[in-house]
Specification:
With about 375 residues, the chain is α/β, with parallel strands linked by helices. About 40% of the residues lie in helices and about 15% in strands. The strands form three sheets. The chain has a seven-stranded mixed beta sheet, with helices on both faces. It has a three-stranded antiparallel beta sheet with strand order 7-6-10, with no helix packed on it. A two-stranded antiparallel sheet has the order 11-12.
Amino acid sequence: MEFLDLKTQQKRIRKPLEKRINKILDHGAYIMGPEVFELEEKLADYCGVKHAISCSSGTDALLIPLMAWGIGPGDAVFTTPFTYVATAEVISILGATPIFVDVYESTYNIDCDKLEIEINKVIEEGKLKPKAIIPVDLFGLPARYRLIDKIAKKYNLKVIEDAAQSFGGCIRDKRVGTFGDIAATSFYPAKPLGCYGDGGAIFTNNDELAEECKAIRIHGTKADKYNSEMIGLNGRLDSIQAAVLLEKLSIFDEELEMRNVVNANYRKYLNNAQYHPKNYHSAHALFSITLGSNNKRNNLINKLNSKKIPTVIYYKFPIHMMNAFSYLGYSEGDFPISEKLSQTIISLPMHPYISESQVDILIAELKH
């Protein structure tokens, strides 16, 4: 069993993808070619937003909006410690301060009650200025944006939806990419919609913000590519990666349905998986369960490995316990739910091409 099966998917799209790549070789626009703009148009249409701005990675998709807002030293940005490091990394890169907020034990997403508590702590201390919130749609499940937006409006904060794992998800009929002031996703190969390298995209309905983000991704240039109007970076998307994404997008909805089936097959037997609230639809980037202890998790990993069933731990270390973020002064015990999850969570194989019989085999091993 494969943890992620890109080979089967590639067989489905290989011929039209080769045709697209040959076209790129003919026209020679290897970076920001016509495929990139075609992709942006289709991504915006898919999400139902005015602007989709492609970029070179999911990390840059988070970084660029922060740059556009001028976030930097003295500013506080609120996010969770139970996610991939990039979410906090982009805050620190700009000299701003990540303020961590623990997560719900059921969904693993940012706890809105604790979010407001942390915002008020920062205001009362008076050392930092609250500027933005970066909720994470962990494992494909959207965060509680109705509550998050309410809090953001109350304290005049910007919201970046970290949709790195959740492209294709939705809350009722509203798709991921439309929440907050701006959204950022990743097209890393392991994502539900992934390319064959690094890539990302930014989504917004704000015309002015979109133009700023477009400029920042090309060294801060607008009218003249040799005259930077602001500090930017090299955040452009390669045409070949856009070609891959265009072909994958053509089968994406079908693959989402297939992921739904795999998820349902797992949940027939497992009641210790991430909770999905009513009307919240995950992109099922991962299927994760929690066990009673680190020892139980290790025993299960060894048992499944012996049967050639792969597993991965997302995430073994909450960000506040990483050496890179020790300067923030957090200690063990500060975020008990995130720390507990890091000790007990395990992700099982999840991709569109897992059969029901494969799920049955895995479940049999779990029960044995």
